[in-house]
């Protein structure tokens, strides 16, 4: 299937900006500027996120004595009800991305089904290289278990999820819950994995097919990895595909973009999950690129994706 026409038009504008010198590839920018550009893109991709969501600012304790910001999203009027919760981890290559860049995603997820969404703002590289992001996410999961009752959340009905490297971090949590329970006491019922990074140690065919011109570029991926885990590419916590002896994990929804350099490794991870005995629902979003969850304001079909997410997750809760 060809690129979605609205997305194709947007990518043509991006390319025109590069040709005229008005925009530049992320991997050519200083980190601070790349972060600003990523934040600005959110307002373009989804200019009108839903306002009718109850949002609570939180502080989540980390193992080094610091704390990281977090946000809890709920349907308005549901504050007095005990809800299941999705622990959602934003994407951004471990280098960019924030609570703000994915605020619209979390708002839409919170309205998609009968559950709350907890989003921790794990710390980023290069200031905080591997394994800080992993440890912040593990700490967030354990914090959720400890504080769920105070927040009117049901710690027995939890899912982990994320997009891009956020999905990778969610995968680490799901694996840890089974294979390293001493590091994570929370036991998720489900995983939501959107276009995950599952192996930074090698490039596959899709890295070449979609290397440029499809929003996320292969050179940008390598730039991210160099900042975060240059010396740890074979560690399963950044390359889950390298994990040996995988046992069945929580039910997984794996949603991939057709035009994405990460497509092949996402498909390989879905197959590895299935081989472990994990129940997997694999979806390929035809005509779309990486980051489609943030494109609600640009691609009409994204609304249907959110509806499917909500239905699938409600069934697991």
Automatic annotation (TrEMBL):
User: In its keyword annotation, does this UniProt entry include rRNA-binding?
Assistant: no
For this UniProt record, the keywords arranged alphabetically read as follows:
Hydrolase
A GO molecular function for this record? hydrolase activity
Pfam family of the protein (one): Abhydrolase_3
Alpha/beta hydrolase fold-3 domain: residues covered: 86-293
Decide whether keyword Translocase is in the record: no
Q: Which domain of life is it from?
A: Bacteria
Tell me its family.
Belongs to the 'GDXG' lipolytic enzyme family.
Designated name of the protein: Alpha/beta hydrolase fold domain-containing protein
Q: Which organism is it from?
A: Pseudomonas alkylphenolica
């Amino acid at each position: 299937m060809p690129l979605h026409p609205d997305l194709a038009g947007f990518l043509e504008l991006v390319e025109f900006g590069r040709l005229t010198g008005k925009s530049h590839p992320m991997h050519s920018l200083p980190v601070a500027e790349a972060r600003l550009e990523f934040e600005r893109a959110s307002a373009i991709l989804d200019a009108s996120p839903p306002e009718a969501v109850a949002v609570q600012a939180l502080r989540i304790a980390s193992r080094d004595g610091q704390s990281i910001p977090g946000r809890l999203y709920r349907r308005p009027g549901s504050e007095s009800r005990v809800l299941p919760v999705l622990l959602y981890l934003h994407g951004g290559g471990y280098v960019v991305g924030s609570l703000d860049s994915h605020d619209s995603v979390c708002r839409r997820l919170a309205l998609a089904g009968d559950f709350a969404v907890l989003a921790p703002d794990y710390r980023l590289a290069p200031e905080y290289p591997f394994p800080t992001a992993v440890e912040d996410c593990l700490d967030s999961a354990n914090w959720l278990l400890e504080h769920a009752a105070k927040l009117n959340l049901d710690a027995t009905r939890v899912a982990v999820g994320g997009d891009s490297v956020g999905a990778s971090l969610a995968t680490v949590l799901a694996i840890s819950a089974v294979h390293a329970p001493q590091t994570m006491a929370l036991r998720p019922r489900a995983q939501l994995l959107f276009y995950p990074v599952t192996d930074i140690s090698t490039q596959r065919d899709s890295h070449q097919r979609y290397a440029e011109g499809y929003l996320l570029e292969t050179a940008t991926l390598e730039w991210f990895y160099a900042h975060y885990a240059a010396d740890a590419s074979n560690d399963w916590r950044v390359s889950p595909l390298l994990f040996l002896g995988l046992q069945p994990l929580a039910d997984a929804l794996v949603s991939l973009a057709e035009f994405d350099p990460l497509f092949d490794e996402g498909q390989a991870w879905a197959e590895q999950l299935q081989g472990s005995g994990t129940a997997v629902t694999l979806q390929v979003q035809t005509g779309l690129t990486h980051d489609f969850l943030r494109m609600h304001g640009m691609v009409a079909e994204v609304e249907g994706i959110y509806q499917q997410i909500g239905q699938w997750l409600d069934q697991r809760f």
